[in-house]
Design brief:
The chain is α/β, with parallel strands linked by helices and about 280 residues long. It contains 12 helices and 10 strands. The chain is globular, with a radius of gyration of 20 Å. Bound molecules: acetyl coenzyme *A.
Amino acid sequence: MSTPSAAATDSDNSTLVSVEIRDRIAWVKFNRPDKRNCMSPRLNRQMMVVLDELEYRNDVGVLVLSGAGTAWSAGMDLKEYFRENEAKGLGAIRGSQREAYGWWRRLRWFQKPTIAMVNGWCFGGGYGPLFGCDLAFAAEEAQFGLSEINWGILPGGGATKVARELLSFRRAMYHSLMGENIDGRTAAEWGLVNEALPLAKLQARVEAVARTLLAKNPVALKATKDAIRRVGEMTYDNAEDYLIRAQEAANSFDNEGRKEGIRQFIDDKTYKPGLGAYDRSRQT
Ligand code: ACO
């Protein structure tokens, strides 16, 4: 177990993001439970530092993002992110938007697979990092809401885009106009998360998923997660071309991996790709 050096503190010296690395899984937490893990500018800055420190570490293969206490994240901090920045003027507003959107973008294209483990409240701006994570698992007890409409703004900061990406048109419209919450089970039914399960079983399931990912070829994982995000906006022909080039680029990082995968199946007959991953420890 180890922690990135001073990753989650800043000049105030409080840790708004906690990190624990166990067996190649980085367990990253929004760590502001008394404020329901809402995202202040300081939290956003600390999160970027944490992502910077974790992204290329050899002892990290998967990142899990969860929240301390009863919330995953109650969205943007209405006091520190909105009111206090608005009082400082446009420069401060744009600056804090860059910090928040910056780490969400960083998460979307993170080098390693990422999993949102939604343990509780998830509101508004929280949909940015939710979508930033490649996979998402929620507690059935969790509550999801685009509550912006309840305090008088549109779901900005990407939240509207996330709703349209992940939900049907009718559901996105209802969800954002009504300001009603849905629980984890409904979030899974709607496609906002992959699965919902009782809170008591959430971590074990996420850990099992992470372990499966850790056994796969990391170059192929990064190429695949990027491809899934990119092809959504491409025509079929453009996607076909992009995928040829993406695989050829991946080969330049790891030309032996896929050859070993073929060899263990065709020559050694030690595994079947339809039923699991090849043994990477045997790759020379
Ligand atoms: N911004 C600022 N402070 C917040 C936020 C927030 N988004 N969420 C919670 N807090 C603070 C509360 O003001 C309170 O502070 P205090 O202890 O100094 O009074 C503390 O966190 C605890 O919050 P409670 O409301 O007492 O917690 P409770 O468990 O009863 O309710 C809930 C949790 C439902 C999440 C509630 O806090 C809430 O509605 N928060 C706002 C959710 C929201 O709409 N977020 C904005 C989405 S829009 C966007 O992100 C752009």
